[in-house]
Amino acid sequence: MSTVLVIGAGGVSSVCVHKMAFNPDIFSEIHLASRTKSKCDAIAASVKERAGVDVATYEVDAEEVPAMVKLIKTVGPELVVNLALPYQDLPIMDACLEAGVDYLDTANYEPKDEAKFEYKWQWAYHDRFKEAGLMALLGSGFDPGVTSVFTMWLKKHKLKTIRQLDILDCNGGDHGQAFATNFNPEINIREVTAPARHWENGEFVETPAMGKKVEFDFESVGTKNMYMMYHEELESLAKFNPELERARFWMTFGDEYIKHLTVLQNVGMTRIDPIKYKGQEIIPLQFLAAVLPKPETLGETTKGNTNIGVIATGEALDGSGEKTFYINNICSHEAAYEETGNQAVSYTTGVPAMIGSAMMVTGKWEGDGVFNMEEMDPDPFMEMLNDHGLPWQVKEMDGPVDF
Ligand code: NDP
């Protein structure tokens, strides 16, 4: 039984708060705060209707550390669950340190003026959390999050070491819009337009964005083009699996998405540096995000499945030589919407955020300091995935990937 304070009221938060409310034996009191209180109230109303649970709501600017500290002290939670944007990670971590409470998030800190996707800023908080006897868990979404747990589960149960790793993120959903992103547009477009980077022989190799495309047949989706890109879990996976010879991340994009993105990029709409417009400074990508469909409005029209997983090749634990395993989850947009009122991209992130929170408040995962998912025992987390809407499957493949 525990009290949690969730920050942010977008699609991911909505799923996580619903899932917490469905598990009152773990989360006895849920508090929800964000920049726009009406969005918290809308989530609270849906939770009341679907789960019969009351969620207390507040307005807060998470970048204002004193306001966050005051809110944390008023609520008295065991854990602060940061489901706002990556820009707020450090101020929320500062507030947690000052108020003496544990912290969890789903995306690494990003400076507003540079697309970096690096853990260095948050790893630098390790000693302060350790000295305070507090725990911070980083990246408890799907990717990062479940992909790291999948990898460590394979390493615990199937492979002694991992030589090659490929993360395959397929969204086979169709939302019926010409162009929209399935999670925060600003963060999504920053990720996609950044140069690709993959881990090879002890270092990151940089290649042009969207420069490598491969066709892959995804179960329950069909054949899709996937593109190699950088994703933040490559950094923690490489750190905690030093034997890795190669690790890559792939995401599927339809031709329409690529066409729109190329035009937007060519005309400068994806820039993240400020420009002067009518005497005011604006950031083109933030303006674009404001005019694009809000991800939380896509739920009703999105049909199809996501299929996200990890293919790992390495020396088998049982001494039978080199083996390759594919471990993945398939999630239906329609089923996610039916259960929580949100599409599967929010669902596949919000459920692991709830499970990571459950791991921390029940003490199944504990420690003093700042931790990545790779450092924790994968088993209890994997068990909860099966029980809470994200069942996974693992199968052996004939050999390593040939792309
Ligand atoms: P949304 O943009 O839908 O929601 C973000 C929420 O944060 C909004 O409610 C927003 O408020 C709030 N917010 C923004 N700034 C502040 C602030 N200064 N103070 C308080 N609240 C603030 O994003 P998503 O729900 O799609 O994503 C949430 C997080 O999950 C992001 O960090 C994203 O990167 C991450 N993510 C992780 C994934 C993973 O697999 N690991 C996958 C997908 C997303 P307002 O409503 O006023 O705008």
TrEMBL record:
UniProt superkingdom: Bacteria
Domain Saccharopine dehydrogenase NADP binding residue range list: 4-137
Any Pfam family hit: Sacchrp_dh_C
InterPro entries, A to Z: NAD(P)-bd_dom_sf, Sacchrp_dh-like_C, Sacchrp_dh_NADP-bd
Gene3D superfamilies the UniProt entry points to: Dihydrodipicolinate Reductase, domain 2 (3.30.360.10), NAD(P)-binding Rossmann-like Domain (3.40.50.720)
Transmembrane segments annotated in the record for this chain: none
Domain Saccharopine dehydrogenase-like C-terminal: 141-390
Cross-referenced PANTHER family: CARBOXYNORSPERMIDINE SYNTHASE (PTHR43796:SF2)
Entry protein name: Carboxynorspermidine dehydrogenase
Organism in which the protein naturally occurs: Altererythrobacter xiamenensis
